[in-house]
Amino acid sequence: MEIRRLFLWVLVLMIMGRGEGQLAENFYSFSCPNVEPIVRQAVTTKLFQTFVTIPATLRLFFHDCFIEGCDASIMIASPNGDAEKDAPDNLSLAGDGFDTIIKAKQAVEGQCPGVVSCADILAMAARDVVFLAGGPLYNVELGRRDGLISQAGRVPGNLPEPTFDLNLLNWIFRKNNLTQTDMVALSGAHTIGFSHCNRFSKRLYSFSPSSPVDPSLDPSYAQQLMSSCPRDVDPTVAINMDPNTPRRFDNVYYQNLAAGKGLFTSDQVLFTEPASKPTVASFASNPANFAAAFVEAMRKLGRAGVKTGNQGEIRRDCAAFN
Ligand code: HEM
Ligand SMILES: *[C@@H]1O[C@H](CO)[C@@H](O)[C@H](O)[C@H]1NC(C)=O
Ligand SMILES: CC(=O)N[C@H]1CO[C@H](CO)[C@@H](O)[C@@H]1O
Fold it and tell me: In this UniProt entry, which residues are annotated as the site Transition state stabilizer (predicted)?
């Protein structure tokens, strides 16, 4: 009797465990064993065409995870222009990130049709671009399912703004189960990529009535930014976010913060606020500390709001629901 009850409980727990659908690094080891090299190859091919592949793919993953969870909802194209990717905050996402995922998915479908989610391909591609830019390599947990909701209206209030202070940054990352240390580490992604002038021009020309230039900006960096981004510059003009090593995924971002060269308020406050300054100092002086914290934070980011088991679907085309 006792043995039978025990057996039954084990069975129930096994079934529940399956339904819960945990992420696992070896999720596709039977169903699509070559998925990682296939994705890596597609990303590398795309990178050969344009460097923008790297920042665009990394930022795409971040935005995907913060809205509806990491479920490729950001990939959906809508004829009405009301999908997640059409929200004003996201319009500045470079098309090369979307293209990278579409190409990788096509390559994966060629070998394992209907098996690998777009959400997982985006998580793998984000890992690959970090490594290809000289950053740390890590294993990605897999088993995400693609979401069934993609609405522009779900974006406002779910993405951080460049004007955010430390409290707001912590609030929006905590909503995604990320700590302040995770937030500081993930902000290190701004070691690569571009920003349009309008995202920070207030810091150069109209910070406050008494001080048009943000006093937390290093004066020579402010001069440099003003010459690249004059007052009424064409809105398509974008500049490197890391003025020193814009194409390398390194810890120079944190050294820049210590020198007053954080591009956004949301970057600079990480150094000016006593609560996060020690973390910035640690990442600035020790690349291994940054690498370890970044990897941990990316893995945690990749768990935000994931659908697993039989939730959602495995999209055939990343830009459309099945
Ligand atoms: C901490 C809060 C954050 C804020 C306020 C923020 C804000 C921004 C803004 C305003 C831009 C410029 C977009 C443009 O003008 O085109 C940008 C670019 C970028 N962000 Fe963030 N971001 C944050 C965190 C992150 C995180 C966590 C990641 C990834 C892990 C990330 C990755 C990137 C990348 C790679 C770019 C460059 C995109 C490109 O060159 O196409 N950001 N971010
Ligand atoms: C955060 O963690 C809690 C507890 O594990 C979970 O219920 C919640 O869904 C998570 N939130 C996100 C956005 O992943
Ligand atoms: C919030 C934001 O980034 N908005 C931009 C979206 O993209 C358009 C066109 O590229 C810009 O004009 C907006 O400023």
Answer: 59
Tell me if 250 is assigned to a ligand binding site.
yes
Half-sphere exposure of residue 49, counting CA atoms within 13 Å on the CB side?
11
Q: What is the pLDDT of residue 87?
A: 81
Domains in the chain, start-ordered, CATH in brackets? 22-159 (1.10.520.10), 166-300 (1.10.420.10)
Task: Report the mean per-residue pLDDT for the chain.
Answer: 93
Task: Please list the active-site residues.
Answer: 63
How much distance in Å is there from the Cα of 79 to the middle of ligand 1?
26
Residue 176 Cβ < 6 Å to ligand 2: yes
Please work out whether the CB of residue 49 comes within 6 Å of at least one atom of ligand 2.
no
Helix axes 53-66, 95-111, angle to 10 degrees: 90
- What's the pTM value of the predicted model, to 2 decimals? 0.92
Ligand 3 probe mutation, 63, 86, 90, 91, most atoms within 8 A of CB: 91
